[in-house]
Amino acid sequence: MEYKVKDLGLAPKGKMQIEWAEKHMPVLMSIRKRFSKEKPLRNVRIGAVLHVTKETAVLVKTLKEGGAEVYLAASNPLSTQDDVAAALVEEGIHVYAWRGQSSEEYYWCIRRVAEAEPNIVVDDGGDLHVTLHTEYVDIARKIVGGTEETTTGVIRLKALEREGKLLYPVIAVNDAYTKFLFDNRYGTGQSTVDGILRATNILIAGKRVVVAGYGWVGRGIAIRMRGMGARVIVTEVDPIRALEAVMDGFEVMPMSEAAKIGDIFITATGNKDVITKKHFELMKNGAILANAGHFNVEISVRDLEEISIAKREIRPYVTEYTLPNGKKLYLLAEGRLVNLVAAEGHPSEVMDMSFANQALSIEYMAKNPRLPVKVYRVPREIDETVARLKLESMNIKIDELTPEQKKYLESWSLGT
Ligand code: NAD
Ligand code: ADE
Hints:
single chain, alpha/beta, Rossmann fold, 7-stranded parallel sheet, 18 helices, globular, binds nicotinamide-adenine-dinucleotide, binds adenine
């Protein structure tokens, strides 16, 4: 079997991590049980580019149990949990991932997945989809379908679709309610705080935390930071979201104003150059910079390197930059996703829903191999199934509509 990981000797440790995640992912485990009986993915070759974490391990083991052969590479050069990668090799997954890859190594791994000629592809961020559409067009044309895990990847796929260049149908898993409402908001909210705390161990209470972007991720970070006593400032470019942040009780201002007063800056926009040279120059001595958006383009590391006269790693995942006037700025996790680099990513309970959507969307693709080529939402039945199974696993029951209520909700004739 082909694979490339850091150290197979780490497998026993990784196995226990996976076991721990399995105990906290009841929805995905119930899908695994059904997959094990029905084998809906028999003869399917799946190529996946995901953060190689214990939660991803639960997903790929589920796909394998459903009959698939799985090839897996990392969706970020710094997010792989090496013990998990090793354990997955022992489970018969073709893993090409290790923590601390160079850009060349990162794409080398993605190319191994593309060259496996998968029938179904699973991506987080779009690097696999884009590699297939640019370097492996003949392989891409034969792909039955794909899925996409995150906002940034969906944006890239919709751009491909708009330009008429999309080569296979894709389900935007990110856009399922049981994904973005929980993963992007509460998952990133908690794990971003976790990453910042593991890296710095600073007190949050009383600090001015600047959150750039008030989308699902930004909202989650802002509410969790407020919950820990931070004075939260939001920056936005969308007037509706800015207004929402104001009415949610946050201060809203441009980054050029926030830069002067913030203690901690967290970007969550999916956009580039949100914090640049002109902002670094305004910041206070000791300001901490972290990114929760998919790519490392939100905080301009290039600008920071350019204006600094010295740089050192003062703690793991904390780089101290010294500016010519002696001011120090602290960049976490090299400007990459702080929650996956300095911590372990989202808790398993949240990934349970995201990856249940993945497993069911992959099954849907396998059962509907001739879908017209476009970007699809997750079918409503899948979204509702995931919510119902999650509630069941939490032992929470809800009311049901009576036939009279159903009729009332469908009618126009009944008023006061
Ligand atoms: P979203 O589209 O809901 O929100 C992004 C927000 O940023 C929007 O409101 C937009 O107006 C705002 N924005 C854009 N440019 C801006 C700028 N220059 N200044 C201030 N605000 C700006 O997206 P989302 O679901 O919140 O995702 C945000 C990013 O986080 C994406 O890159 C996504 O892929 C990533 N993500 C990361 C994780 C993680 O584990 N770290 C999890 C989910 C999503
Ligand atoms: N994205 C965010 N958190 C994650 C996790 N724990 N596993 C895989 N992908 C993630």
